Amino acid sequence: DIQMTQSPSTLSASVGDRVTLTCRASQNIGNFLNWYQQKPGKAPKLLIYAASNLQSGVPSRFSGSGSGTDFTVTISSLQPEDFAVYYCQQSYSSPGTFGQGTKVDVK
Amino acid sequence: QAHLEESGPGLVKPTETLSLNCAVSGVSINWNTYYWGWIRQSPGKGLEWLGTIYSGGSTSYNPSLKSRVSISVDTPKNHFSLKLSPVTAADTAVYYCVRHSGHFGDTYNWFGPWGQGTLITVSS
Questions:
Q1: Cys-Cys with A64: which of A48, A71, B6, B38 at CB 3.0–4.6 Å?
Q2: R_g over Cα of chain B
Q3: B9 and B27 Cβ atoms separated by less than 8 Å
Q4: Which of residues 17 through 76 in chain B touch A, CB cutoff 8 A?
Q5: What is the β-pairing status of strands A45-49 and A4-7?
Q6: How far apart are CA B96 and CA B113, in angstroms?
Q7: Which of A14, A98, A60 is nearest to B96 (CA)?
Q8: What is the average pLDDT across B43-51?
Q9: HEC assignment per residue over A67-80
Q10: How confident is the model at residue A77 (pLDDT cuts 50, 70, 90)?
């Protein structure tokens, strides 16, 4: 299975900050990388697919980049509703695997 | 826009069979570009894809579950189901049903939308 590693595990930030989260794959996955956001007690929600494509309805302050083994998601100006856990997921090969998540919390 | 909602027993005894249903509304489950899957989330293992059923009824499962898992579709009821047997305490998790937009390796494939999730506890 392809292993997905996210860093950091927790990121403390303030409203208005620019934040960048990182995901690394254990092998080359091209751009087959999705990002999800999960809030407490809720299901994950798709944010970005194929590394850099914003899902419909997702604010433009979110952006994704990367290819091969290294990927990032950036929030250009953190908003109160963005405090959540973010997961990456490789869609290159079965079984699709997820990272362990990065929690963005209040500094 | 598809809406998914899981239903299940909440508590299952070890060695028994876990059965979950996912009701789909807003779209026909039989639409040939829609695929349907199950994902679970536990503190120990995080998010884990369990399997997907594709149009025509073919299935793909996570090898980690070996032969314990099966997914089926009930077209007249517009829902799909998961069976996992036999269960152990390690199967305690929140189970989500999801739309899977394509096969792994397709240019665009992702999970979404998701149901709200249902907590399943395996205990005697």
A1: A48
A2: 14
A3: no
A4: 46-49, 60, 62-64
A5: unpaired
A6: 10
A7: A98
A8: 94
A9: ECCEEEEEECCCCH
A10: very high
Task: Name the token pair of B120.
Answer: 């399943």
- Alpha helices for chain B (secondary structure H): none
Q: Which of A49, A50, A41 is nearest to A85 (CA)?
A: A41
pLDDT in tens, B94-110: 999 999 998 888 888 99
Runs of H (alpha helix) within B21-93: none
Residue-wise pLDDT for B10-45, tens only, equals 999 999 999 999 999 999 888 777 899 999 999 888
Contact B8, B82 (CB under 8 A): no
Query: How far, CA to CA in Å, does B80 sit from each of A31, A38, A99, B48?
Result: 30, 24, 27, 19
pLDDT at A49: 97
Q: Which amino acid is present at A61?
A: R
Determine the residue among A46, A53, A92, A102 to mutate to test chain B binding: the one whose Cβ has the most chain B Cβ atoms within 10 Å: A46
CB contact under 8 A, A91 and B109: yes
